[in-house]
Amino acid sequence: MTQVFKFGGASIKDAAAIRHLGRLLAHFPERPLVVVISAMGKTTNALEALLAAARGDDRDDYRARLESLRGDHLATVEALFGSTAGPVTQRVEALVSELDRRHRAHAERERPFHYDQTVCFGELLSTTIVGAWLDEVGMATEWLDARELVVTDDDHQSASVDWKTTAERVRGLDLADGRLRVTQGFIGATPEGASTTLGREGSDYTAAILAHCLEAEVVTVWKDVPGLFNADPRRFDNAVQFDRISFSEAIELAWHGATVIHPKTLAPLQQKAIPLTVRSFLTLEAPGSTIAGDALHDGDVPAFMLCEEQTLLEIRPRDFAFMDEARQHDILGRLVTAGLHAGLIDAGAMRLSLCLDSHPARLEPLVTSLCADYSVARLDGLTLLTVRHPDDDLLRALGEGREVLAERRNATTAQYLFHTRECPATWHIPE
Description:
Blueprint: E1 3-7, H1 15-25, E2 33-37, H2 43-54, H3 59-81, H4 86-106, H5 111-119, H6 121-136, E3 141-143, H7 163-171, E4 180-184, E5 187-189, E6 195-197, H8 202-214, E7 218-223, E8 244-246, H9 247-255, H10 263-271, E9 276-280, E10 289-292, E11 303-317, H11 325-338, E12 342-348, E13 351-357, H12 360-371, E14 374-388, H13 392-399, E15 406-409, E16 413-419
Parallel strand pairs: 1-2, 1-7, 2-4, 3-4, 7-9, 8-10
Antiparallel strand pairs: 5-6, 9-10, 11-13, 11-14, 12-13, 14-16, 15-16
Keywords: Amino-acid biosynthesis, ATP-binding, Kinase, Nucleotide-binding, Transferase
Catalytic activity: L-aspartate + ATP = 4-phospho-L-aspartate + ADP
Pfam family, one: AA_kinase
């Protein structure tokens, strides 16, 4: 059965990384295998800066940035192929020239459209180089243009998939000839052929789209960590790796701020019961973590999510009336308009408390809007701790010595809001 692998930018950041990728893939001779690849390293950031320059007046800055992008990719080609670099160099040069042409053609168009027509070249460049290298080292490879497979609407920078048409195109692929397929993450196209991008975590999402349409056996997301952890190892000194959790548990963790797989990636896999495994591209023998349909292992260990730079808003009607459904509907509607997510919501008879990211560009207009119609108390400099599957002893230990400013608890989840100044730089999960 078909497998789908996804590699992010860190795994192909330079020539040495691409060589390592080739050695890794040599351990997986089974076919069909579809490999989804992101842009190299920080290329998307460089393309966004190039986009800004293209839409500005400083042509020298634009030319310098374009030349830097070109030079970085050609240096990788030279390091990989040496004296045989000619054909790959020509393909890279052609892509950079086409990128330049599109910048000039679309500089006066609305930014989201311009963004999608140009930022997609990061993935086109990376897959061109990687596909050629895999061929070079003896892996028969076919390069596929994801824009001819993933069909979307024209909501640029956050396009929605046309599942019926996409499935027809993907299922029309002949994968039985033993070749490895390399394609791009993050990008698609409208039925008219205009490039689109899939928004946050778009490359993971591409892997899930293809797996769903191909009814793949498994999706493997290769990262620079060995799997999924019950807490951020950078902040918790005794975090442990999950062996297996369910789709629903992974979505809960993501909702509460964990940097696990995005829910939009999990949804098409859950529909077809296709497991997703996270593995390390640095340590092939590491066992990895699996997200699948069964919930047998959910709650084996508690999970911890920290959200810092939080603000607590306590909102009350000015007429001392109830905080009824109509008022809650109004307030939460304004939250949606502001593009903010409430990590904690707690309601009382005459108040609604919201814990929000302290994102000035989004938070300040929301606060101004609410103050026009409600009484609003505000507290900044907070940390929200969410714990999945805790017991009472664990929660007592975590809260010891800290003032709890707000809390919420149900059968599976507890949330506590603390002053950040009372929180340690490194947490230790009580035994």
